[in-house]
């Protein structure tokens, strides 16, 4: 994990702003996310979280919401395609780029809640589903989030490892496991 310099932050501002625009398309009731994959001044993929139009799924019917699960617990129950997944799918299937095209790329992810961009107080990634997809289905070098102090970048393997650790901690806390 590393904090981006002011110069690095300025260089990604347009991508961060695009991710914020994308999250406005989200139909998730919990949080709205936008993600942009970029490299060498070009957008390789972009997406937002949404519920696919299949089998009558809607966010209000999500089993995870019904069970009031948070902090990554039960994400396998979530109907939504996550923004990171959506951006990778956009890159691979809509833009017909290859996994190799993403080598050395970055992804910026922006979250909003209740219509306001959410800047993490303490960033604790826990979505192993997205971290696994980034790690196994792309060669994205770093994933960038915004917190109250600026921007934080995680390497793809580092994001996966931290997400597993944080999800494990969430499970232990939820169920009182030592």
UniProtKB/TrEMBL annotation:
Coiled-coil annotated residue ranges, if any: 5-32
Keywords assigned by UniProt, alphabetized: Coiled coil, Hydrolase
Spans traversing the lipid bilayer: none
Gene Ontology molecular function: dCMP deaminase activity
CMP/dCMP-type deaminase domain ranges (all copies): 1-157
InterPro entries for this protein: CMP_dCMP_dom, Cytidine_deaminase-like, dCMP_deaminase-rel
Any one annotated GO CC term: cytoplasm
PANTHER family reported for this sequence: DEOXYCYTIDYLATE DEAMINASE, DEOXYCYTIDYLATE DEAMINASE-RELATED
Protein name: Deoxycytidylate deaminase
Lineage of the organism: Archaea, Candidatus Micrarchaeota, Candidatus Mancarchaeum
